[in-house]
């Protein structure tokens, strides 16, 4: 993709403060961080959404994410916990359409949070959960 900012980072055409890089993934500092130490882990090959991501590359992303999270904890960056966030699709607040996993250091009072919708806390009946699980399970068999 010619207009993908993350592909430009991978090619070295855009600057990045790289934390880690291998054949499959690169991790670098987010330029609009939630907190200091906010890192993005991305695949080097373009995948706009999770369904386009090679599973082995996705596994490598998560392996690197685990290392980054531990690195944050040991680095001296203010970090009492870590949130991982991946937005897949516009409705999920994805803004850059190249898969990327946010590794966000957290601490009490940092002001960051998630806002839940009006149906949060509603507990569906087991039958509904089972039916939904069945639909998802069947759909997963098709790919």
Structural notes for this entry:
The chain is 30% helix and 17% strand. The chain is an alpha+beta fold.
Q: Top keywords for this entry?
A:
about 30% helix; globular; about 140 residues; 3 helices; alpha+beta; 5-stranded antiparallel β-sheet
Helical fraction equals: 25-40%
CATH topology: HIT family, subunit A
Low-confidence stretches: none
Shape estimate? globular
Q: What's the CATH class label?
A: Alpha Beta
Tally the helices: 3
Major sheet description: 5 strands, antiparallel
Write the CATH homologous superfamily.
HIT-like
Spatial arrangement of strands, main beta sheet:
1-2-3-5-4
Strand/helix succession = HEEEHEEH
* Distance, first to last CA: 25 Å
Structural class: alpha+beta
Number of strands: 5
Rounded radius of gyration (Å): 17 Å
Q: Can you tell me the number of structural domains?
A: 1
CATH architectural type: 2-Layer Sandwich
Mean of pLDDT: 96
Beta percentage is 15-25%
